[in-house]
Amino acid sequence: MSGFFGFDAALPERRPGQGGGDSTRQQFSGFQASNADETFALSGAGEEEDLAVYTWGEGMGGGLLEGGDELNDETFGDVGEINNDFQFSSQPAQQPAKPSYTQSSGRGPIASTQSRYKPKPVADPFAFSEDDFYSSRPSTKKPVANKAPSRPKAQTGHSGSVENLWNKPAAPSPAWGTAPSSLTKPTPPPASYSSYPSQSSGPPGHIKTLEEIEAEMSQLDVTGPSAQTLPSQPKVLSLEEVEKQMMESLEPPRQPTPQQFAALPREATPSTVPGLPGSGYANQQALLDSMFPELGKAALPLQHPGSFPPGAEGIPPPAGPSPEEIARMEAIHKRISAKIESMAQHNNLMGSSDKDFITRIQLSQLATADPYTSDFYAQVFSALKRSRMAAEGQGDGPTVVPVAAGLGLGVGGPVGNRFGKMGSNTMQKLSTQVKKLVENRAQHQKVMNTAALQGALGRVTRGNAAAPRPVLAIPTSNKPEHRAASHLNEQTGIHRAALTRKQIMFALEELYDAVLELEQMRREAPPPTAMQEIEVWHARCQTKVDIIWRRLMVMEPLDVSNPHPFIALINPVKGQRLFPRLLRHLPHNQSITMLSLLIATYPQLDVVARAPPPPVADASLLTKADRLDRAKREAETDNFLHCIIPGVDMIINRCGLGLVAGMLAISAQRSEVWKVAATRPGVALYTALLSKAQSLIRAPAPDPMNPQQNQSPDPAEVEQWTKTFTYFLHVLLPHLPELFPSSVAQKAAFGPGAYLLGGDAIGEREAVEMERREAEVWGFAAALAVNAAEEEQTTLVAALREKILHTVQAARNPATGPIRSEIKLRNVNMFLNGLGLDAAMIE
Amino acid sequence: MDDATTAGISEPLDLVKLSLGERVFIKLRGDRTVTGVLHAYDAHMNVVLSQVEETIHFVDVTEDGQPLPPRAERRNVEMLFVRGDGVILISPAQQ
């Protein structure tokens, strides 16, 4: 630090660190010392390290760390090199001694001690550029630092006193100069730590000049405190070199040093403080000498507890560890490696506990709060499968394995089958295991329940075993309902724009969600014995139904828009599919209301307003978009007939004659009947209405199951029906022949197609399909005929006369395929039989 | 109305949900497009379609480097699973 780099910039930075506290200083010195070592070894490699030192010094200034000195070597090593170049050039010899000092002080023994004792004062006097820096600030800081640090120095004081002594004899003036530098450039810290203990005996050894001093020390020690010192000291003289070796060997045990620090400083401080002020060599020596006895007595014992054990022991241990410990270590190592080897046999293999663990993880992931919906398809599949198995006489098991309150595992099939050999015992074990896991997780989740925020910061966290990412996120929070209809109801204006496609789709998704929830709720019916729960359950279901009902927007004013919101909802195929599922949950009156609305707004239906156009003879005349459009319309119509008409039939079948008459009246008044009837959905609707009315009027044989419906219809209702039907037929009659698909097709055809259409130009398949559709209309005509009074029947036949003749002739035409001719005859007979006639009667 | 329809949409895929059961147009990597009825999708935009028409677009180049007018090859598939990493866009099919 202080070295080349330091002069101007580095030093100032250091100063703050030094100023910060003694500990920093010590560390400073410490790393300087280490630097010194490195510098010794590596004189050239300083520059890069300098930078590192910089930061380090700053960091040190920021926070003083007494602990964690073990790493000082690494950090300090970098710094030291520079310093070394600077100072050590002049004083290579002293350094060896210094290391011991640094060691003695522990962290920054030499440097710190020197700095504390001499440097601080000394630094100022010495005119090294670095020193100047140090002196200027350190001096100011040192007082503060000294006061507190002085204690640690006190430790050094014992050693330091010795050190000082050494320094003085070895290179008095240079030492001073070095002292500041030594702060920055003490010898390797590790050595210092270990050396410290040895120091008492060892440091003197380093500096030969101090041998005498050491002798004194040893004597003092002997007289004074520790027996440990005694052995070491006698050796000291002879063992100086040995001690050096010891120092090196002892370096590793740094841990003792902190203890030394803690223990020594306090006691030592007083003695050191006096020593410090005495910056002069002679003064210091005198002081030290005088101090020594005290230090020797007081400090040495202090040192011994902390530092000595390592040191004293260290001397013998270096030899000891190698033979004994090595053997022991080898034995241990052998044992360990043997163990590892034996275990390695099973590497990459899963034990049963491992499998268990993984199974539990997997199961815990499967457990869900809502086994029905989160495993919906498996449930449906299992329902189908079980019904099949039930038919085969096999018992059915539960579809859900309850794991904990409100949690369960969805099971796709009957339990016995699904888990085959595992049997119910295993399932029980599993469920208890999972139960534990789930409970465990529930506890954790309280803390970790941040799933709602997942991805909020752009990073989607992967789940872990403790908090698996929910595969199916079921929204738990109840969002407020967002519905177009609620706004509609608030509006006074009756007319408004039709729902946009997006709104429709959105409403449909909401409806699906609601229906799914409702269906789930129905499945969770409480046991029939729990009356209260059943009531609650009913109430919940009812609220859900109400929600769905509102979302259906059936109660919107009839003319609110075109199409009506409800119609808009069942225009897409998706909505049509939803219809039968909805119908199951709606009470009778609501379904009647819905049917009324449907009939009143029937012309707004896509399948009616945009009924698929009649087929053309040559499909190649159509553009691609045309073809797609036709296909789409056909698909929608088919779907409508498949999904909605059965529901409509069902509702109509529950209606009384008055209602049926009313509905027919609504349709006749509100729409152009013939246009509606020209479409397949229209035909289906009217046919259903007419046949229901007829069956009601004819009062079929009394049904024991349903006595009330056996009553012959109310004459008023019959009269109303008759009037309505008469009007209906009157409106419809002129257009009756045009209702037939074949007629429409012929009308629409042009060019050669017009002639080809009735013939073989159309493929057989299309022809048969055409006949099937004709059948629908013939059925409708038959329903008309059945309902019609006698004179009406006459007009009816008259209106259809040509159609009948044409069809019968075509059926008898040998060119017509047998299948088609048969269908044609059957179609005509369907109508004629209603009148008591038969195609065979036609010439 | 607009508030009402957008309020329930919290992530982009919520919009795809609206097209469930509807015919969608999907653009794929490799100059392919697909239209079909959307049956299922997931977060990876893996998609299950039915009544699929797949179109592959080519631009042939003559020997001297002149591009010929683009042409397309089509095929129809009853049911198709489309892996999500090829999906570029999903949109409702034009009505």
Automatic annotation (TrEMBL), chain A:
Residues 67-76 have a biased composition (Acidic residues). Residues 192-205 have a biased composition (Low complexity). Residues 4-220, 337-839 form the mRNA decay factor PAT1 domain. InterPro entries: Pat1-like (IPR039900), PAT1_dom (IPR019167). Residues 1-44, 57-235 are annotated as: Disordered. GO terms for molecular function: RNA binding. Its main location: cytoplasm. It is found in: Cytoplasm, P-body; Nucleus. Residues 23-37, 84-94, 100-116 have a biased composition (Polar residues). It comes from the Eukaryota. Belongs to the PAT1 family. This is mRNA decay factor PAT1 domain-containing protein. It comes from Kwoniella newhampshirensis.
From TrEMBL, chain B:
One of its GO terms (molecular function) is RNA binding. It comes from Kwoniella newhampshirensis. This is LSM complex subunit LSM3. Binds specifically to the 3'-terminal U-tract of U6 snRNA. Coiled coil: none annotated. GO terms for biological process: mRNA splicing, via spliceosome. It comes from the Eukaryota. LSm subunits form a heteromer with a doughnut shape. It is found in: Nucleus. Residues 11-95 form the Sm domain. GO terms for cellular component: spliceosomal complex; U4/U6 x U5 tri-snRNP complex; U6 snRNP. Belongs to the snRNP Sm proteins family.
